[in-house]
Amino acid sequence: MVSLQLDNVGAAYGRKAIVSGVSVPAIGAGAVVAVIGPNAAGKSTLFKRIAGLVKGPGAVRVSGSGKGRNAIGYMPQDSAANAVLSVYESLLLARKQGSSWSVADDDLVYIDGVLHALNIAELSFLDLGVLSGGQRQLVSMAQALVREPDILLMDEPTSALDLHRQVEVLEFVRRQARERGMIVMIALHDLNQALRFADTVLLIDQGAMRACGAPSAVITATMLRQIYRVEARIEKCSRNLDHVIVDTAAA
Amino acid sequence: MAAIEAYGDEITALSGRALYRVHTRRKLIILGLMALALCLSFAIDLAWGPAHYGLDQVIIALFDPGAVSDQVRTVVWDIRLPVAVMAIVVGAALSLAGAQMQTILANPLASPFTLGISAAASFGAGLAIVTSVPLLPVAASLIVPANAFVAALGATLFIYLISQARGVSVQTIVLLGIALVFTFNALLAFLQFLASEQALSAVVFWTMGSLAKATWPKIAVTLAVLLIALPLFARNAWALTAIRLGDDKAASFGVNVRRIRLETMLMVSLLTSVPVSFVGTIGFVGLVGPHIARMILGEDQRFFLPGSVLAGALLLSLTSIVSKSIIPGVVFPIGIITALVGVPFFFSLIITTMRKSW
């Protein structure tokens, strides 16, 4: 079973350090980790560092995966593309990198499966350039999924989706994590989604890790005041689930 | 939403994978038709000229030279064949260079012509013609192509190095290219101002681009560059396509974006500078050849790559025919004719093709 551990991980662009000192004890297969923090906290850079796209100190330790560099799948935040490619071609592209030109039926079957699982089969032969923001996000997620990663990093995957799609996608991702033993790290701005869907919450602010633990232990009124600068309460809803209620911006 | 595996077996025969296979077959047929059109254009190019021959005569002259008269053999093999082959090889090379420039710079305006590489080659050639100053230690007869080559290669590498700098946007590179065009045009004008009348006319003729300069050694060198570039690009086909989705996305697919860009740009430098140094400035084909391929076939490099090669070769081969058809007995410099032939075709594609070209 795959596991992921971050040891004092940092990331830098040139000489400018963006993230530093992020340590997370081993995350086990099937876990969903929400990465939260204000704008420009360093969440995207941390994801890129874990995905190996930027360099930095510390170590990202992946064990229990036989996929080498392909163990980690990364869904970037901005997926706008004007390439003259259909959605289907872009998924094939994601799955076939580095291999021969010929396309096996197995690859196509898997792509069909992902498209149907995400309810976007009707987009298959549309060009990427004509997709709406929400559709682009779903296609980007499909591109990450067809690579069958053991660890999936999703940078704000629901920011352009309507409410129904947001819930649908997050439930789907959590189910994938449980059923396939995949680790999912997901950057979220909606703290109620983090409370509801994550097993662990990692809080990043100003490039440093501020907390890591169970959602209810990390997302507190004190944290919201200090990090997000809002006066808020955490209350139980009618289904006895924690819920963030924001009263006002803190002075 | 359901589990991925659950759906794989349930999908009907007319679902994504069946449609994908249909689309792929359609693209292969289009490529076949383009290749056929190129063969036809090549044969007409050989048959067309002050002395008209039938296609059957040309084919016999090509495959059984002993069966035709000395005159036909000489005209086809020694006069028309080098020009017709050069048109195809140069068209293919410039279109391929433009296609990969547009791919790795993510810019629809990228081409040897618009990024100032052709202008640099013209300046290099002008420098050789007007001052005889060599940029490479070569024989006197090779100074013009050698200077054009060095200048073009220098301009391409300069653009590449700038494009690699942090914070340089796609728009900046286009602006830089336009600045290079103006710079080299100004330098060339300066040379022309100083040139003798004889040198001036030689420079002007060179910059018009002409296939009349075709020789078998030049064809062999250009073809060699093309044959080195094609397998490299073919090997990187998935990676090059992925770069069109953005650097982050491509990197997330495991593509070493930096290495692919470097390899591609170096190859593009050769693909551009070699033909331009031999035949002069031929604009348009490097810009429009890839766009024609993109509109018809999309940007999956498995189809876009051969499509760009065929579109460029066909465009220049047709231009070669037109260049000797306007006034019987007169062969116009091909650089003048390329755009005149290509623009109507390109416009008709834009109007009739529903697919976005960028």
Automatic annotation (TrEMBL), chain A:
<keyword id="KW-0547">Nucleotide-binding</keyword>
<comment type="similarity">
    <text>Belongs to the ABC transporter superfamily.</text>
</comment>
<protein>
    <submittedName>
        <fullName>ABC transporter ATP-binding protein</fullName>
    </submittedName>
</protein>
<dbReference type="InterPro" id="IPR003593">
    <property type="entry name" value="AAA+_ATPase"/>
</dbReference>
<keyword id="KW-0406">Ion transport</keyword>
<keyword id="KW-0813">Transport</keyword>
<keyword id="KW-0864">Zinc transport</keyword>
<dbReference type="InterPro" id="IPR050153">
    <property type="entry name" value="Metal_Ion_Import_ABC"/>
</dbReference>
<keyword id="KW-0862">Zinc</keyword>
<dbReference type="InterPro" id="IPR027417">
    <property type="entry name" value="P-loop_NTPase"/>
</dbReference>
<feature type="domain" description="ABC transporter">
    <location>
        <begin position="4"/>
        <end position="231"/>
    </location>
</feature>
<dbReference type="Pfam" id="PF00005">
    <property type="entry name" value="ABC_tran"/>
</dbReference>
<dbReference type="InterPro" id="IPR003439">
    <property type="entry name" value="ABC_transporter-like_ATP-bd"/>
</dbReference>
<dbReference type="GO" id="GO:0005524">
    <property type="term" value="F:ATP binding"/>
</dbReference>
<keyword id="KW-0067">ATP-binding</keyword>
<dbReference type="InterPro" id="IPR017871">
    <property type="entry name" value="ABC_transporter-like_CS"/>
</dbReference>
Automatic annotation (TrEMBL), chain B:
<protein>
    <submittedName>
        <fullName>Iron ABC transporter permease</fullName>
    </submittedName>
</protein>
<feature type="transmembrane region" description="Helical">
    <location>
        <begin position="173"/>
        <end position="195"/>
    </location>
</feature>
<dbReference type="InterPro" id="IPR000522">
    <property type="entry name" value="ABC_transptr_permease_BtuC"/>
</dbReference>
<feature type="transmembrane region" description="Helical">
    <location>
        <begin position="215"/>
        <end position="234"/>
    </location>
</feature>
<keyword id="KW-0812">Transmembrane</keyword>
<feature type="transmembrane region" description="Helical">
    <location>
        <begin position="136"/>
        <end position="161"/>
    </location>
</feature>
<feature type="transmembrane region" description="Helical">
    <location>
        <begin position="303"/>
        <end position="323"/>
    </location>
</feature>
<feature type="transmembrane region" description="Helical">
    <location>
        <begin position="330"/>
        <end position="351"/>
    </location>
</feature>
<feature type="transmembrane region" description="Helical">
    <location>
        <begin position="266"/>
        <end position="288"/>
    </location>
</feature>
<keyword id="KW-1133">Transmembrane helix</keyword>
<keyword id="KW-1003">Cell membrane</keyword>
<feature type="transmembrane region" description="Helical">
    <location>
        <begin position="109"/>
        <end position="130"/>
    </location>
</feature>
<dbReference type="Pfam" id="PF01032">
    <property type="entry name" value="FecCD"/>
</dbReference>
<feature type="transmembrane region" description="Helical">
    <location>
        <begin position="28"/>
        <end position="48"/>
    </location>
</feature>
<dbReference type="InterPro" id="IPR037294">
    <property type="entry name" value="ABC_BtuC-like"/>
</dbReference>
<keyword id="KW-0813">Transport</keyword>
<keyword id="KW-0472">Membrane</keyword>
<feature type="transmembrane region" description="Helical">
    <location>
        <begin position="79"/>
        <end position="97"/>
    </location>
</feature>
<comment type="similarity">
    <text>Belongs to the binding-protein-dependent transport system permease family. FecCD subfamily.</text>
</comment>
